Amino acid sequence: MTLFEQINEGIKAAMKAREKDRLQALRNIKKVMLEEKSAKGADASITDSEALKIISKLAKQGTDSATIYKDQGREDLYELEMIQVKIYESFLPEKMSEAELEEIVKSIINKVGASSMKDMGKVMGLASKELAGKADGKDIAEKVKELLQ
Questions:
Q1: pLDDT tens, position by position, 14-63
Q2: Mean pLDDT for the chain overall
C-alpha cells in the first residue's frame, strides 16, 4: 500500500473514530499531495519518496509555527500545532542518530572525492537525495560543513 493510500485509509479511520485532530492533519497531507499531483508538469501519481518529502516539509513548517506560537505565549495554538506535527511524524521514517549521519556523510564525501568547502554543493546534492526523510536538511548541512573544514 502506498503512502497516499495509507493517508486515505487513515482519513476513513479517523472519521469513524471521530478523531478531529488526526482527521484535520491527514486531510492537510492529502490536500498538499493532491496539489502536488495536479501541478503543471507533474506526474499523475505521487511516489512514496515524494510523499515523504511533502510530509517532512509539513512537519517542519508545523514545528516552526509551534515555536512562534510558544514564543508569543499562545500555548493553545502551540499544543494544536504539536499534535499535528506528531501525526505527520508518524508517517516519516525514524530520524538518524548523529553517528549514523556522520558515517553516511563521510561515505558520500569519499564517493564524490570532496576535499574542501568548494565541494559542498556536490556533497549536499547527493546527501539530500540519499537522506531524504531520514535527516533534516539543516543537520545534513551542518555535518557536511563540519567534515569538510
A1: 999 999 999 999 999 999 999 988 877 767 778 887 888 889 889 999 99
A2: 87
Q: Residue 118 carries which DSSP code? A: G
Residue 75: pLDDT band with limits 50, 70, 90: very high
Distances (CA, A) of 50 to 44, 60, 94, 96, 140: 12, 15, 17, 19, 19
- Rg of the chain on CA atoms, in Å: 18
Helices (H), the chain: 3-17, 20-37, 48-71, 75-89, 98-112, 120-130, 137-148
Task: Return the SS3 of 119.
Answer: helix
Total length of the chain: 149
